[in-house]
Amino acid sequence: MIAKGSIVTLTYTMKNGRGDVLENRQITYIHGSSEISSILQAQLEGLEPGQTKKAFLKRGDENADDDFAFDIVVESVREAMQIHLLSGFLGSGKTTAITQACQLLAKNNVPTAVISNDQGDQLVDGAYMQSLGIPGRQVTNGCFCCNYNDLDHCIASLKNQVRPVILFAESVGSCTDVVASVLKPLLRQYPGWHPTISVFADAGVLPEILEGRSPFDPTVTYIYLKQLEEAQVIVVSKTDNQTPVHRLLTQRYPGKPILYQNSYNSDHIQKWLQTLEQLSPASATLPSLDIDYDRYGAGEAQLAWLDQDVLIESPGQNAQSAAVALVTRLSQTDYPIGHLKCLIDNATKISFTSTGTADHLAIHTADHLTIQPASSTRLLINARIQTSPVELETQDQHEREGATPEERCCPEDSHLLPGNFIEKGEQQLCKQQCHHKSAGNHEDRFAEELNDQLTSAGADRFADTHFFCAFFAAGGGEVHKIDRGKQEYKGPYKPEHPAIPDVAG
Fold first, then answer.
1. Of 50, 85, 168, 320, which one has the fewest beta carbons inside 10 Å?
2. Averaged pLDDT of the chain
3. What sign results for the dihedral spanned by CA atoms 106, 87, 211, 303?
């Protein structure tokens, strides 16, 4: 029933006093808000889905310049905002789907918001969403599962300040067990809400994963497969058509809805959103995973993460060219890349993902990449790369022996430090990332190797270009064992919880 605070979707035909049809459209709004006429809203009070109503706005009411009549059909009424959880492996296209969905919904006057999530605290995705004007918050320094209080803070902040009709929450790409540790606690904490869970899979990577030919460690592919197992709907992304992997998917995950989606196709996005709307009432029946946390933790530990915020200055106006060269050089590491995503000047996003073989990468640009002359460019880098300390030490020695002093443009005290896998005890929700600075630690090798790769890109082609690392941090993947399915927020909501920081500022 329509009441104050209800989220209402309706279809209407608007006519003027002469009977001419002026509009015929569908809208979604929050009842009691200023999004549509308060006079019209008063005439809709108490209606149920499926009911119709002829409403009127007379000349002079709310500055109306004519008499208007509205033939209205109530499509749906919800008492809470809709939350769509997105899971899926690194680089699988979750962020692209969210941005395209938000832009499509905005055209239909549907307010949206996004919660981003990653291991570090300088998030490319969060900054990119902000650059597009999409309201959002971010959960940093660990996954939703291990930071449920932070997730709840973000939900409360957006609910009170932005009032979205649809909220997208994108979990870090190496996270699984989302049903037990996020979806079910949300269902208990917010009765009447029906969060959904979509799991995305890159069409170029999926066949090798299902056929056991992935360059990633078996413990990493274990996470990938567990993500697919708990999906409410599987979205095979970066494809326009059903792929040959369909048979393998249906055999391994019988009964699960499967969408084949090019997220730049608005029809595909609309179909995904409609599918989620249909699946939403069944979210409470989703089973929790039967998961081996030792294998899960071992897989997380394989994936080191990197955050870097770099200011590039070039008197010769080559700063943007140097930024692209720098990230291309970084993508040429010998280690399997889960995801390497970069944001240039807080506006242009570039991402590299492994396409299923160790020596082949795909580059994706969310925007048309036009390099402009620039004396200064800010580059934000997030990466998840499968590494081992022994291999890194060998690679680092090779890089350092081949590097000239001119190639070392980053400050000497910049460090990139993978942390160690830490297994937490039952019910513990705290986050703990390792940021030691130990010259004798094997993990330092990752810092030095990537420093060399990044800075030599500048020296090779841009002699007048200087790289300043304003922020440089990294860590290793970790899993926190928790009392699955019993999480809840235990503390007052703090309205001062920050919005997405301006990374480029």
1. 50
2. 76
3. positive
How far apart CA 201 and CA 204 sit, in angstroms, is 9
| Residue from 168, 8, 4 nearest 85 by CA | 168
C-alpha span between 472 and 244 (Å, rounded): 42
SS3 308: strand
CB 198 within 8 A of CB 84: yes
The count of residues in the chain is 505
Handedness of CA 98, 100, 102, 108 (dihedral sign): negative
pLDDT of amino acid 237: 94
Q: Please name the residues in contact with 87: beta carbons below 8 A apart, sequence gap of 6 or more.
A: 94, 171, 175, 176, 178, 197, 198, 199, 200, 227, 230, 231
> What is the value of pTM for the model shown?
0.71
Q: Could you read off the pLDDT of 487-497 as tens digits, one per residue? A: 543 443 333 33
Enumerate helices (H) and strands (E) in the chain, giving the number of each. 14, 19
pLDDT at 426: 23
Name the percent of the chain in helix, strand, coil, to the closest 5.
Answer: 30, 25, 40
What is the DSSP code string of 219-273? HHHHHHHHHHHT-SEEEEES-SS--TTHHHHHHHSTT--EEEE-TT-HHHHHHHH
Torsion of CA 490, 474, 200, 483, to 10 degrees: -30
Q: Nearest 5°: phi and psi at 155?
A: -60, -45
Stretch 390-398: mean pLDDT, rounded? 40
CA 355 to CA 337: how far, in whole Å?
A: 9
Report the run of H or E that residue 402 belongs to, with start and end: helix 389-402
Is the Cβ–Cβ distance between 40 and 31 less than 8 Å?
A: no
Q: Using the 8-state DSSP alphabet, how is residue 416 labeled?
A: -
Q: Given this model, what pLDDT does residue 452 score? A: 56
pLDDT digits (tens, 9 = 90+) for 334-358: 788 888 888 998 888 888 876 533 3
Question: By three-state DSSP, how is residue 162 classified?
Answer: coil
Residue 6's pLDDT band, with cuts at 50, 70 and 90, is confident
Q: How far apart are CA 200 and CA 216, in angstroms?
A: 18
Lowest mean pLDDT among 104-113, 276-285, 440-449: 440-449
Other beta carbons within 10 angstroms of residue 189's beta carbon come to: 14
pLDDT score recorded for residue 383: 83
